[in-house]
Give the backbone structure.
Amino acid sequence: MRTTYEGWPRHLGAAFGIVALSCMIAPAGPARADTTKSATLSLPQAQATALQALKSGDATLAARLARALVQANPENSGPYFILAQAHRQLGDRYLARRAAALAFRYAKTPEDRFTAAQIAAKLAYDDKRFTASQYWLRRSLDPAPNARLKQQAIRDFKRVRAENPWSAHLTFSVSPSDNVNSGAQSPYNLIEGLPVVGLLSPGAQALSGVVARADVDAAYRIAQSATSQTRLTFRATTQQVSLSSSAKAAAPGLSGSDFSSVYASFGLTHAWKAGENGYAQAGVSLGRSWYGGAPYYDFARADLSRSFALGPQGRLSLAAGYEHRDFATNTPVSQLAQLRFNYQHSFASGDALQTGLSLGRTFSDAINNDNRSATAYITYQPARKIGPARLSLTLGASRTTYDAYSVGFLAVPGGREDDSRFAAAALHFDDFSYAGFAPTLTLQTRATTSNVSRFDTQETTLSISLKSNF
């Protein structure tokens, strides 16, 4: 990896004080007590001497002077720059990386912070610590002196990421919502075709609050060739709910943890080049889902996908999945089969369009779990920004049908049918990033109608999420 910024900070010596520094400089010949000379150096002189020692290859003297400078002022970044280079020349990689990190901590200017982060990234890369190198390249983005150096740092990051056997994608979001539990809009449970009126519990009705979500998708590459790669995968998702004061008053026996969930899985994927313009991937995984703090179900899953270009501006993706779920309760097992179709198109204007269709079939001896589902959506993203933000708009609809369904001992005539409509508008603030992570503000609404009124729901959510720009 090429370090983006060459050379030392131009203002390295500006922060040095005028306190005198004394050091003993021994003569070239045999040491004798009466010939040892004592030289008094100011801090700027000591800095200049240390830098000259580095240029002449005397890393030991440079490190000795820099350590003395640190003792004189431990919060001055200048000596740490010198120590980083000196320890690198001496072969002590750990101390070199540590010195670069301290140079970044105490740097007073954006230029010095950028340089320190770049040095730390280069030292980590040379030591094949690719994840640490990626971390420091991210830290160098915000203080980059200009757009050219920032883009160079991003290109360096992508090159290191390609070499790193480890990869991870992180997403965080916080979402205030008027329906955190997918509750019904009405306290009454009505079933079409039956002259029966039931009352829903407070927990089955819509409750407001805040949902915090974190998702980690990590992988380790165990094999790679020119046309394929194999990875071990790990994914964990947690969704934590906090009820509003009004929701707590409406449902005093419930807390947000009753609606919180966790998902974790381990797996193996193999991806390979398929044809001249596409790729394919196959994977298997095992995992567990928790809900309300208790195990919900264990699962085993297999996936197969194929993606290929349709012309210079279009791409079509096809995917199929199968999942076996074994519930923690006495509920019969379920088998889920899925087919997904996705098409992306980029226009010459810079606008982008994405549309998709998902078909699902759940097989189960429990009639309330056995169903068919279909979801379709379209997303449009204009190239023109709205102020500092990119806009994307999504519209979609879904239908889920149950051939047979029961509410307690009552069978629903003709089974159950749910129809949903959803829409979302998202603003992506790419220019307001920190270490390459940028916020997205999303307003989403969803409404579901059903012949069982327990599933007549409405939800409006405003979420703020953080995701990497690259």
In short: The radius of gyration is 30 Å. The longest strand covers residues 294-310. The chain has two domains: 20-163, 166-468.
